[in-house]
Design goal:
Blueprint (H helix, E strand, L loop, with lengths): L1 E4 L6 E4 L2 E4 L4 E10 L2 E7 L9 E2 H7 L2 E8 L2 E6 L5 E3 L3 E5 L4 E3 L3 E3 L6 E7 L15 E8 L3 H8 L10 H24 L12 H5 L2 H14 L9 E8 L2 E8 L2 H21 L11 H11 L5 E4 L5 E6 L3 E8 L2 E9 L1
Parallel strand pairs: 6-9
Antiparallel strand pairs: 1-4, 2-3, 4-5, 5-15, 7-8, 7-14, 8-13, 9-12, 10-11, 10-14, 11-13, 15-16, 16-20, 17-18, 18-19, 19-20
Helix pairs in contact: 2-3, 3-6, 5-6
């Protein structure tokens, strides 16, 4: 069953040539598809024509993008050396450097972008030297996404004005706290620690734990095909233990399919981390449709990024939404339940 999402606001906001408008008619939603305590709902819609950009994971593997250490915990340098645009998503984890990091905002990098700063948060507290044979000056891979709504909220949700100049420090501490909580929960789920002896505070190494990987594999086997069943799927929302968690929607089915394995891994990991908690029935599909619609209402607070790309943040009573757009249109929308 597909439920259309309707948002009542038709106000539009513009910044630096980028138009942001709350949807008057959003794509339909289907689901749920359920395994264990994880329920998936798929967003359907028309795709933007043309090829999808490379993902950060693809570009790092192809060595057409470099993410470089700066010596600052909360800022890295990124450069697209290739001929294709590259999509970077908020929550992408990059492995290596002096500390593993996660990237704060979604961004579309044009070809041959030159080196630009990108905001980051440490997800490995304490290390500040090379790890094993890794190059401490740059990051070699991005195979994971932050598997915690709490950490995503810490990175992206607006802070009160009183936070002022201390805001980045507040966010970083909350991210570190989120990593520690996730490691504890995952350890309880697997029946032993997921912390690696190579770096006990590394989120990335914890996600590579073999016992965790085995549990995650069960979710992936059960759910992966559902995300590739229809050619008009452009995004998804997931719920854990009966509660809506978050969602991601993209400009096209092609970009969604590129991101899907990483997204599903992160969603499965989050579900595993909450396995022992009270479980309720999955939300009705119309409740998920209402979640998306409500998230897209409200006045947009717009932040310029780079290359004519900007991000609009909206807040509803129950959620935040974050829309990354260029002059050509929106690229990515992220949703976080409060």
């Amino acid at each position: 069953m597909r439920i259309p999402v309707i948002a009542t606001s038709s106000l539009a906001f513009a910044f630096a040539g980028v138009a942001f408008a709350a949807n008057s008619v959003a794509p339909p939603v289907s689901g749920p598809v359920v395994h264990g305590n994880l329920a998936l709902y798929f967003v359907h819609g028309a795709s933007r024509p043309g090829p999808a950009p490379l993902t950060l994971q693809e570009a790092l593997a192809m060595k057409t993008v470099e993410v470089r250490e700066t010596g600052s915990v909360n800022s890295l340098q990124i450069e697209n050396l290739g001929d294709n645009p590259v999509f970077v998503q908020a929550g992408d984890v990059v492995k290596g450097g002096r500390q593993d990091r996660t990237l704060q905002m979604s961004l579309l990098l044009p070809s041959h972008s030159g080196s630009i700063p990108i905001a980051s948060f440490c997800v490995e507290h304490g290390r500040w030297t090379a790890r094993n044979t890794e190059d401490p000056t740059k990051f070699e891979a991005s195979v994971a996404s932050v598997p915690s709504r709490e950490m995503k909220m810490a990175m992206e949700a607006p802070l009160p004005a009183t936070a002022g100049a201390s805001g980045t420090g507040v966010r970083q501490q909350r991210v570190w706290d989120g990593v520690a909580k996730a490691q504890d929960r995952l350890g309880a789920a697997v029946g032993g620690t997921v912390r690696s002896t190579a770096s006990e505070t590394s989120l990335q190494l914890a996600l590579e734990n073999q016992r965790l990987a085995k549990l995650r594999e069960d979710y992936v086997k059960a759910l992966h095909e559902a995300g590739e069943k229809d050619g008009d799927i452009t995004g998804y929302v997931f719920a854990v233990n009966g509660k809506i968690n978050s969602g991601e929607v993209y400009e096209s089915n092609a970009l969604f399919r590129k991101m899907w394995p990483k997204l599903l891994d992160a969603s499965a990991t989050e579900a595993i981390s909450h396995h022992g908690e009270e479980k309720a029935a999955p939300p009705a599909v119309n409740d998920v449709a209402a979640f998306l619609a409500d998230s897209d209402r409200g006045t947009a607070s717009v932040m310029p990024l780079n290359f004519g790309v900007s991000r609009a943040t909206r807040e509803s009573a129950a959620a935040y939404s974050f829309e990354t757009a260029s002059a050509a249109g929106w690229v990515h929308r992220g949703y976080l339940a409060k």
